[in-house]
Amino acid sequence: MAREPGLIPIDELVDASRPIKALLRRFAYLLLIGAAVALILIGKIETVLIERVRSHFSDGVAPILEVLSEPIRLARAGAEHIADLADLIEENERLSQENARLLQWRVFAKKLEADNQALKELLRFDPGPAARFISARAIADVGGAFARSVLINVGAGKGVGAGLPVMTGDGLVGRVIQVGERSARVLLLTDIKARTPVIVGDPPIRAILAGDNGDNPKLKFIDGEGALEPGALIVTSGHGGVFPPGLPIGVVAGDVAGETWAQTFVDWRNLNYLRVVDFGDQPDPAALAPPPPPPPQPNTESRANGG
Fold first, then answer.
1. Residue 217 to residues 52, 145, 208, 211, Cα–Cα distance (Å)
2. DSSP assignment of 22-62, as one string?
3. How far apart are CA 84 and CA 262, in angstroms?
4. Whole-angstrom Cα distance, residue 279 to residue 243?
5. 222 pLDDT higher than 50
6. Predicted TM-score (pTM) above 0.85
7. Of 265, 275, 245, 270, which Cα lies nearest the Cα of 184?
8. Under CATH, which number does the domain 132-288 receive?
9. So where are the chain's domains?
10. Which of 100, 211, 253, 295 is the most exposed place for a label (fewest CB within 10 A)?
């Protein structure tokens, strides 16, 4: 094949470059070492120049490094976000379960609170482990203008006996005076025939709580001198065997026209549910019967006028 004038064949160029490649391969390490030494010497001599070159090199490479590092940063942020999301899902699940348990406990606590409040209203007074309670409902008011008593729907068939105290959650109501098989009659503390030995205040002062058919009985036969302090607590004394000691009745309301009045804890207009309390030692029913009305007194003045 004829070659064009002025052109060198490729084979000849390759053959001519082989000695140059062999020479460069032999002295390559020496050239690199020389270049490094030269750069070190230049860096020692021209510090400002090297720093300027380094700064320009850093400025040129920084955007490239920033672009190259962005995917790594995004990947790392995404991994952290996924980990945080997994933790949030787990925490949310745990909180949801805890909230469900708390809601169950809240409902249960509300029920216990309501039951506890009802029991407190009914069992505000705790007479002791030996007492026996008989729940009753007032079914009729058998009193009148001159008597105060109520009829309850339990009697001897339920263990009710004459002389047993009758209470509400607030305090003492009265005592059983008549008992049938299925009903009983309760004489209230406010009845005009009711006389209850009591202790007032601290230090205790003995007195007699006397009903007058009104809502506020009077305190009579007060042991000691001076007026009783308003607000002083009134409880049964246990004397005379009528009631056990310590049953709450009310407080001292004050003195009016030389009379000391008591404010009872019981709301006499709302006697719906009552409790007959058996303390074990029942007093003699005969001693608890209402006293008979006094016999009529002769009119001595009319006799004297009539001769």
1. 110, 15, 10, 5
2. HHHHHHHHHHHHHHHHHHHHHHHH-HHHHHHHHHHHHHHHH
3. 71
4. 10
5. yes
6. no
7. 275
8. 2.40.10.340
9. 10-45, 132-288
10. 295
